[in-house]
Q: What sequence folds into this?
């Protein structure tokens, strides 16, 4: 290799390495800042107690209401998005396989939906909520977040299914499977580990979004026990506390952000472990 | 030099002592045409496949052998660019135009691809899959069938202690035999083999070839290959394809000894 090529190789290597490690450094920096700023307020009381009177002025209590509310909304929305997204992605990849133009149009529309800002979903959810006669509630929040994350779920499932080798489709059909049997018994199995990653992405987006639940889920200091009751969420808890003039309350906002980050990290790690377990039988 | 090579090959065929009987055909292909856009991939194919024989579709890469094989069990459905016309009769059913249930027709034909594609489940479940599709729920019957077909493909002794391991834990050669066992479990009439040894080492290839010799007692085999020597070793009947056409077809001893076309003659020379 001549000298110019060696230099070119080294420059490219260091530049790409720098890009990669700066991303990791940025993630570490975010986590450190959140934890350092919220560390003093991070306590078991914060995790296991609901806000008491005057909590947002520095009084006692915690953000259990927002933790539970966020989990309810993200979980409900993720379940709905899987129920809609899975058949939709299978339909695109199994039944529209000979209709490339329809396939591409659907994919383009889903990509467009993916790109719509979450505040627009919030406004749409609010309109829908009024139309259906719903109050700001857990249900309205779940529906709106489901609308937000379903395009993510469908497109990610779609990409997973798209990478399944055609030979596996052929093997399934040649054994006498119907298209639906092939989809659910073979493609679903093969794509399962990828689906878990997709669900994780969707859940992470759902639990962390503030704009879509701003008008629809409401906010309360109580833990919702019915779908028609308002629900607090962690992003809104962070939003409300961060705007406070009281330093102690602002510190609690960072503690709430740390809790949200921990939830996402725990889900991410467990999902990867599950995904790894299920990918053992996958055809490479 | 050419004559010498042909004589050597003819000797090989005669040594193999192949008896050809094409009186009863199990599959009839009539006026089959396949287009992909402006490309005419298969041109007016007419072919009869004799029962319980190995028919080899021989030809250079890109001549349409695999497309022809995929037409036979209508897997061309998966390729939106392919337009297929004509008739393919398996017994009384025209698979291309039949109102009969396509999955049922496909179960009459087991498929062995170039590269093995085991299902993403255990070894046991791979073989049991087709049986369950057929509605068999009796576990004892499924156990029996799994063992029978794994034995039939010479795999039983190698996997009997790890039936519930992922199929992907097997070697490529074992995976190919598993795919064959999986196909046989649904009791097909025909085995469609698309260059099944192309990804295998010589030992595994030989095992598959020997299996084909045994299996033709009970099954009709259509084998796609571009390897002349494999065709000579296995064929009871040969169809030589070139640029989407069947240029010559017949019994191997006649075809290879006295090729009618320059194309086959040249292919035989290049193939050696």
A:
């Amino acid at each position: 290799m001549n000298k110019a090529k060696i230099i070119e190789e080294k420059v490219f290597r260091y530049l790409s390495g720098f890009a990669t490690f700066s991303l990791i450094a940025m993630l570490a920096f975010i986590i450190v800042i959140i934890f350092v700023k919220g560390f003093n307020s991070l306590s078991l009381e914060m995790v296991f107690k609901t806000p008491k009177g005057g909590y947002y002025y520095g009084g006692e209590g915690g953000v259990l209401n927002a933790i539970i509310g966020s989990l309810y909304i993200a979980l409900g929305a993720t379940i709905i998005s899987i129920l809609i997204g899975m058949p939709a992605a299978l339909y695109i990849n199994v039944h529209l396989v000979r209709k490339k133009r329809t396939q591409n149009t659907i994919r383009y529309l889903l990509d467009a939906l993916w790109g719509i800002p979450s505040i627009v979903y919030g406004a749409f959810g609010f309109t829908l909520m009024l139309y259906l006669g719903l109050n700001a509630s857990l249900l309205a929040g779940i529906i709106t977040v489901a609308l937000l994350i379903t395009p993510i779920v469908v497109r990610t499932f779609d990409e997973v299914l798209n990478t399944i080798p055609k030979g596996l489709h052929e093997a399934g059909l040649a054994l006498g499977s119907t298209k639906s049997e092939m989809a659910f018994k073979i493609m679903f199995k093969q794509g399962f580990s990828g689906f878990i990653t997709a669900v994780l992405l969707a859940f992470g987006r759902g639990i962390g979004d503030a704009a879509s639940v701003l008008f629809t889920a409401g906010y309360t200091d109580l833990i919702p026990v019915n779908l028609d009751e308002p629900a607090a969420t962690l992003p809104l808890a962070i939003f409300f506390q961060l705007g406070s003039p009281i330093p102690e309350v602002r510190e609690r906002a960072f503690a709430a952000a740390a809790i949200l980050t921990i939830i996402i990290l725990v889900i991410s790690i467990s999902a990867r472990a599950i995904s790894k377990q299920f990918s053992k039988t996958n055809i490479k | 030099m050419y004559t010498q090579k042909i004589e050597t090959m003819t000797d090989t065929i005669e040594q193999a002592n192949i008896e050809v009987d094409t009186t009863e055909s199990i599959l009839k292909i009539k006026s089959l045409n396949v287009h992909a856009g402006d490309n005419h991939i298969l041109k007016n194919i007419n072919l009869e496949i004799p029962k319980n024989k190995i028919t080899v579709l021989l030809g250079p890469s890109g001549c349409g052998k695999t497309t022809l094989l995929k037409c036979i069990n209508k897997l061309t459905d998966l390729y939106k660019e392919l337009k297929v016309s004509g008739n393919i009769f398996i017994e009384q059913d025209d698979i291309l135009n039949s109102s009969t249930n396509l999955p049922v027709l496909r179960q009459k034909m087991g498929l062995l691809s170039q590269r093995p594609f085991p299902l993403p489940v255990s070894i046991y479940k791979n073989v049991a899959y087709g049986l369950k599709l057929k509605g068999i729920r009796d576990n004892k019957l499924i156990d029996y069938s799994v063992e029978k077909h794994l034995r039939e493909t010479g795999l039983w002794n190698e996997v009997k202690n790890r039936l519930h391991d992922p199929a992907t834990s097997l070697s490529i050669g074992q995976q190919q035999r598993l795919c064959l066992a999986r196909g046989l479990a649904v009791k097909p009439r025909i085995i469609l083999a698309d260059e099944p040894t192309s990804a295998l080492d010589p030992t595994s290839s030989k095992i598959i070839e020997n299996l084909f010799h045994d299996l033709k007692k009970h099954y009709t085999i259509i084998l796609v290959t571009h390897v002349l020597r494999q065709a000579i070793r296995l064929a009871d009947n040969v169809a030589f394809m070139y640029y989407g056409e069947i240029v010559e077809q017949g019994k191997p001893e006649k075809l290879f000894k006295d090729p009618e076309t320059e194309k086959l003659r040249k292919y035989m020379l290049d193939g050696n």
